[in-house]
Description:
Largest interface: A-B, 77 and 28 residues
Radius of gyration of chain A: 22 Å
Order of helices and strands of chain B: EEE
Strand content of chain B: 35-45%
Radius of gyration of chain B: 10 Å
Strand content of chain A: 25-35%
Oligomer: heterodimer
Number of helices of chain A: 8
Amino acid sequence: AAGRGHDHVVLRAEDVLPSPSSSSCDTPREHKHGATSSGTRMPIVHRHGPCSPLADAHGGKPPSHEEILDADQNRAESIQRRVSTTTTAARGKPKRNRPSPSRRQQPSSSAPAPGASLSSSAASLPASSGRALGTGNYVVTIGLGTPAGRYTVVFDTGSDTTWVQCEPCVVVCYEQQEKLFDPARSSTDANISCAAPACSDLYTKGCSGGHCLYGVQYGDGSYSIGFFAMDTLTLSSYDAIKGFRFGCGERNEGLFGEAAGLLGLGRGKTSLPVQAYDKYGGVFAHCFPARSSGTGYLDFGPGSSPAVSTKLTTPMLVDNGLTFYYVGLTGIRVGGKLLSIPPSVFTTAGTIVDSGTVITRLPPAAYSSLRSAFASAIAARGYKKAPALSLLDTCYDFTGMSQVAIPTVSLLFQGGASLDVDASGIIYAASVSQACLGFAANEEDDD
Amino acid sequence: VGIVGNTQLKTFGVVYDIGKKVVGFSPGAC
Lengths: 447, 30
């Protein structure tokens, strides 16, 4: 951002343009890979950016912005379905059943279980509402097994169970860039028995020949089923977790974009931060780079990221042992002015922070207030309107402009923390002629 | 629920402390 005042930020045109995956990878600034003073740091790259080990997957053609935003809508709906079932249980109030607004037919959770038996004697796993992965995600590279193989996986604060595709791929595997993990070649690998307490930590489980089975299914129909096992997980050349419990997928299908699997960072029992609680104290941090050609980081341990002053922290709410990181969004500022949105608009719906969702979803009343404040501030500058981009309905054509000035946007949270959104996060651009306000509305106020 | 997505989190160090039950945002972290 070329300039930042309290009410506006100036964007250079090249900052608006998404970097094509064919451009070169920015060298990361002052990132030390490996151990930090009291933890571990891993580089994060955008799955479809030039730094990704998967960059030339799909024959080099990343998904279109429509596809990314479509998949993102799937994910948001899947999360909301999941939350509404747990919230209903907690609140006891049945939620209205609305047909899903997404254009694509959703597999209903009552669909026959995708977990058809892995072998004739295996139990079938019931389908769970799961979580949609979406395709706009960030990946990290982990080591698994002894000797450790390297696997590029999607990391996801909206999921708990880590899994990778495994040899011999008994049923079906999707194409992945790297070799499949082969448990038979790892001297530290072992299956978890059905009787082990760890097996009951799973949200969806089964049993086959005395071995614990896991199953995860996502809102877009993707799923992974296999043996729940333990092995050594290596996060950097200095740091490993022995006996880490993960899914060894023998039946995996879906939109995983040739990643080897997924690293679960949610609040549930099977997630990495909860499994490694004694080692990292339940603390981790991530930073997404401004551009998809940049490199961010995923840190584990109390030294994660520079010390965050209490002024910049917000309470983590709703401690029901389930996956999501609930926070209390309390207001929005545009151009430095606080929008007049009744607090109940935010408290009715509740808010989570989710690394796997691309676009922030707001209650409709909050979104319309944000949109009109943003649009009126921009109108004063005479920028040309552009057609909507999938669910993003407030778009502009910045063709021919070397730089543009847009109003600042800040999200305010309980405890006074304010997220003054970076310029790269206010505008989501498919191209310089279609650059949109990077927020969207939920369907209903209590979504 | 509302969902804060990764586009709006760019360049912030987002710290999750499950033990202390807080989430922190440190600007300009990457």
